[in-house]
Amino acid sequence: MRILVVEDDPDLNRQLKEALEQSGYVVDTAFDGEEGHFLGDTEPYDAVVLDLGLPGRDGVSVLKGWRAAGRDMPVLILTARDRWSDKVEGFDAGADDYVAKPFHMAELLARLRALLRRASGHASSEIACGPLLLDTSAARIMKDGIPLKLTPMEYRLLAYMMHHQGEVISRTRLTEHLYDQDFDRDSNTIEVMIGRVRKKIGKDLLQTVRGLGYRLGPSEDSG
Ligand code: CA
Predict the structure, then answer these.
(1) Rounded to the nearest whole angstrom, what is the distance from the C-alpha of residue 150 to the centroid of ligand 1?
(2) CATH number for the 126-216 domain, one of 3.60.150.10, 1.10.150.20, 1.10.10.10, 3.30.2350.10?
(3) What separation in Å is there between the alpha carbon of 55 and the centre of ligand 1?
(4) Strand 213-216 and strand 168-169: pairing?
(5) What pLDDT, on the 0 to 100 scale, is given for residue 148?
C-alpha cells in the first residue's frame, strides 16, 4: 500500500512517514500544497494524509482539485483543534475522515487502516484468503494460523494482493503501489518477489495470468 503524506511541519511530516513505514506502507511526502496536489494528481496512491493548513495552496483546495479530476483515493485530513468549520469544509471537499491536531499516532494509523480496508471492500480488520489471514492492525500475515516470515517488501506485496484478492493485478500496478516515487523501478524485481512469496504460501494460491499479471486466491480451474 502506497501512502502520500502532505504536511508542511517538517517534524510531523517525518513522524508520519516513519510511523507509516513501520506499519508496512510505502510513503511519499510533500511539504506544500502545490507539490502535494501534483503528486496526488499523477501517482496512484492507496490513501492520502492531507494537512489542511498548507503554504502555497491550502488542503481544501488541493482536495477539491483531486476530486474534480476524478481522483477517488481515500483522504484523511489533519485539522486544527477546535476548528469545526475546517472539518465541515474538508468533508464537503471530499475528505473521508479526519483527525484533529494534536493526535495520537495510533489513532491516525487505525483510521487509515479502516479507510484502506473499506476502499477495497473489506469491513473487518482481518482479511482472509484461503489459508491466509491478514491482521491489518498487527501488520502480520498468517498461514493456517502460523505467522509467515516475510521481508517488508514481501509483506507489502502480499498485503496489497490480499486487499485485492481475486483481481488480476498487472506488474505495473504492483510496482506503482509497492515502491515510492524515488525507487528505480524494475518490473523484474516484482517477478522475483512473486516467486519468493509463492514459495512461502504455496504455489497454487498465487497464479500467473499470462500476459496480464498475477491473481491471488483459490484457483478458478485446474487447466
Ligand atoms: Ca500545517
Answers:
(1) 36
(2) 1.10.10.10
(3) 8
(4) antiparallel
(5) 97
